[in-house]
Automatic annotation (TrEMBL), chains A, B:
Gene3D superfamilies per record: 1.10.10.2240, 3.40.50.12570, Glucose-6-phosphate isomerase like protein, domain 1 (3.40.50.10490)
SUPFAM superfamilies the record matches: SIS domain
Start and end residues of each SIS domain: 12-149
A GO MF label: carbohydrate derivative binding
Superkingdom field: Bacteria
One of the GO BP terms on file: protein N-linked glycosylation
This protein's name: SIS domain-containing protein
CDD domains, per the entry: SIS_1, SIS_GlmS_GlmD_2
Amino acid sequence: MSSIHAEYLSKAIAAVKQKNPKNIYFVACGGSMAYMYNQQYIFDVETDIPAFILSSNEFIHRSPKGLGPDSLVVSCSHSGNTPETVEATKVARSKGALTVAYSHEENSPLWQAAEYNLHYDWGPESDAYEHKAGMALRFIFGALNALRPNEKYARALESIKDLNNIFERNKKKFAAEADKWGASHKREPIIYTMGSGPVYGEAYAFAICFLQEMLWVHSSSIHTGEYFHGPFEITDYDVPFLLFKTAGETRPLDERAENFAKKFSQKVTVLDAKDFDWTGIDKDLYSYLSTPIFGAVSRTYAERMAEHRGHPLTVRRYMWKMDY
Amino acid sequence: MSSIHAEYLSKAIAAVKQKNPKNIYFVACGGSMAYMYNQQYIFDVETDIPAFILSSNEFIHRSPKGLGPDSLVVSCSHSGNTPETVEATKVARSKGALTVAYSHEENSPLWQAAEYNLHYDWGPESDAYEHKAGMALRFIFGALNALRPNEKYARALESIKDLNNIFERNKKKFAAEADKWGASHKREPIIYTMGSGPVYGEAYAFAICFLQEMLWVHSSSIHTGEYFHGPFEITDYDVPFLLFKTAGETRPLDERAENFAKKFSQKVTVLDAKDFDWTGIDKDLYSYLSTPIFGAVSRTYAERMAEHRGHPLTVRRYMWKMDY
């Protein structure tokens, strides 16, 4: 699919360049929304274009007044079938916004709803460069480079060509740790996740998708900057935390939370982006590229817990099984 | 303090009018940040001025590129002493932004850091109109009315004069329910809160301030639009939820989450803004005014639980007791 992907991408990026958006709304639900934290963060730090993240149904009903013909609305649904995200895309398009949608399914309702579409591959045999992780980075840095040309964005686009190798190397590097975590935490009734900056999205995704949805373990993602303003009072010797420590700008927040949590809990696990195998990647890109690596590596933690619990990640009791 | 409050307010609002900000950052930590969801929401729905919420330390380290001389930065710290919020305010001011800070303490570090200050009263003997709840609404609707004059904002400013009575009537109305909830939930190890729109901030505050911080009960706030995209899989007959159901635009999200949760959990408690005593308030203001009412009423739920658990809301193990 790679040539089609590149063709879709270049059309969407050309449209973004032409629109020169006044503001950007990233709109999706659950794991798809979580992945947009990185995209919103990159725009926030690199440009003065206001960028927002909203869960699809909130976007529909809140109806932000800034949404209009000068807006770019980026939506995502893996199946292309999430009703709220399809509807949100229709709402955005009806207001004249430029709509760009990511999904795995061509000709899905989301595909029909959006003006521009970005298809991505899925499954173990395909390359991460053609997955959601790769396509999102290619779109974001492509759009940035079109709107505000910069050698850094061009370098980022080159670096992510190696994304599949980066993922594989890091999954291997953390395989033993992942298994140890899965085994030692399999009977925990609640596990908190923590993160900041763009990585907060991965902490959120791990809490709601892997722990709550797939493993039926109670969880909450705690922003490491917020930890000291309430949540830290539940820290105790037996309360588990899984911290995704960024290599980016907000690392001091993560370090502070780590130092405190380790004093009072015996169950603090830290996945540190500085420990990732970064071969071939420039340091000034660590912050933005760490999010998908956290995604790939943390999935193996969930997989090992699933194995040790005998509760496959595919098991659901409600999702896709009934109307809701 | 009421005449001084009005004087501070009118100076800050005049400065906002003169600045005519290109964007607005609401910056604080924990409960002070949670309260800004309502303020951000009002700007999002009523104007096309981009408005953001960031936890203070994230704001400092992320350093959004949109922050500059055309920005308004609104910060808040009850004590005026929260180091991250003081620093964030200094950063904003150093970049030329107009800085307005709410706090209870005059001449605190935050008071020194901000160009304009809004003092608020505290304690049971003072009037809610002069509290943070009242001052925030007076500032937001005052600023809106200065930037985009509208009879609705003028009516809002009139209505909130009665805030103290509204709070008292509603605390009384829900007193029996609050006690019932506190007694029946006192042994729960985890309680989820839910909300959407501006009320999501109150669900967040209840989770992190009342449950985690003050009562040492595990918790997580779930956005009702996100519930179906992961979190709902942890719903079970014995999992408690406390839903803050808005009377505003996003009510359909709350209704959907309520209907589902009630099918599979026997412990769903709903605090519905439509059941509030709204005497004297126009319907088109319910959405914006419900957030502080949720704040006042939900506090009584926490107070009753504290009583039944024998664990006063003032107890802390870490906060203010050590360096962190």
